[in-house]
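Protein details
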Amino acid sequence: MGRNLLHRVDPSRSEDSLRRFQVRKTLLHATVGLGFGLLVLHPVSMAVFGWLGVHPGGGSVSLGISLLWRSFTIDMFPMGVVFGLFGMVIGAMDGYHRSVLQFQRNRLARQLALNEELRRELEGHNQRLRELEMAKRRSTYFLVHDLKTHLGCVLGFAELLLKRATKERRHRDREALERIVRQGRQMLSAVIDLLDLARLEEVPGLDLDWADVPSMLLEALENVDAPGVDGRVQIGHRHAHCPVVWSDRRLVVRVLANLITNALKHNPDGVNVIIDAAPADGDVVFSCHDDGPGIPAELVPRLFDEFVTESEQTLGHASGLGLAFCRAAVEAHGGRIWCESGLGRGTTFQFTLPVRSEIT
């Protein structure tokens, strides 16, 4: 498509063609107007004037005919030239405007044809993109299911060995098994985030029901599997006044658990986390606050993009899918999610859920 289409709509070329076409059309019509004024308009005018009685002895047909023939004589030639010039001016003006209109019609027709060609080409590209997107989603689903199977096997054997561990087993072996289990669960969580994110982006289907806010906060805390969760994470006191919300309980609990896990994993030891919720203008606002070192301001707007993480010194090794999943899950409910942070003043993630939504 490149040079051929660009050549067809080259503005400088179009202007040059318009000028040449206008000159030819104007000259042609001016010539026709000159001939019409000299050979037709002048004789007819002389005859009409004679028949109407403008000349002495006028009013007779014979005088009109004689004046018609007289208009072609040499002594009437200057008058004929005047009529010819008059016709030439009118013809030139008519030719100029006709050339402009015709050129614009032709250019519009070419542009419409070009637009139709581009539309068909764009439809072809869109169709190929849709096919590629479907292929990517199918590959994602297959990959995720395979990873879940393999991770389930690894976790099963690691947990079995950990249960069989005896006091005689060396402390280093137990610690290695615990790390295997912990890392395996984190990988499994990332895999589930990837699967749910793909599903939410494709068809945001939700299993909606009335959900109690305090119980969701408690369940999210119980679902967090991260070192140091006991004693470092607390539930606030504002949630007691929250109404029930129309939501997919499983997804909301996972969003809260992801936010808690991020706060623990991406902050140094000793940082405290508080999760809470409060009613506000027909919504329930959930929050997860930590008193850690905070996030650089330039990174905050991009936190919810896929595969975006902070530096490894701050966040450790992260997939960058957890917050993208949180945003997709919250927006599927008709809510919004955001982060308020700054270096030296901690971090607060908040998201809203409508108390009652028309989502189906």
